[in-house]
Design goal:
Layout lengths: L10 H12 L15 H15 L3 H27 L7 E2 L8 E2 L11 E5 L7 E5 L1
Antiparallel strand pairs: 1-2, 3-4
């Protein structure tokens, strides 16, 4: 395989690459001293390349792509979690007989009462308070 050719990665081959990476914690475990040793990491990549019969550059390229893809998916999940609006919130309260999900409160409840709000302009406004 020339350096310009790309390996055809299917899910089985990708899983094999991940399994090989798991064998070498110096490639991914930042808490290890070996993680900071370039020679250790280079030797691990060489061994993985030999096992998969691929050039080292293809191993590092594919691993980089997998990391980028994972980070992209994690950002999407994080954005989705932080983007939860009031309509998506599930209220759990012992006083409710059931969970309230995506309720639309367009009309004030009958329990709301009228009250006058003082204003700095001297004019009072009618408002409803629940």
């Amino acid at each position: 395989m020339s350096s310009n050719e790309r390996w055809k990665w299917d899910s089985d081959k990708t899983m094999l690459l991940i399994q090989q990476y798991e064998r070498f914690p110096e490639l991914w475990n930042v808490s290890l001293m070996e993680y900071r040793k370039k020679e250790k990491k280079t030797n691990a990549i060489k061994e993985i390349a030999e096992i998969l019969n691929l050039p080292e550059s293809e191993i590092t390229r594919k691993w980089h792509n997998l990391l980028c893809q994972m980070n992209s998916e994690m950002r999407k999940l994080k954005k989705k979690k932080s983007g939860i609006g009031a309509d998506d919130v599930i209220l759990k309260d012992p006083s409710f007989s059931q969970n309230v999900v995506n309720e639309e409160f367009t009309q004030p409840s009958e329990q709301c009462q009228d009250y006058l709000t003082p204003s700095t302009s001297g004019i009072e406004h009618d408002k409803k308070r629940c």
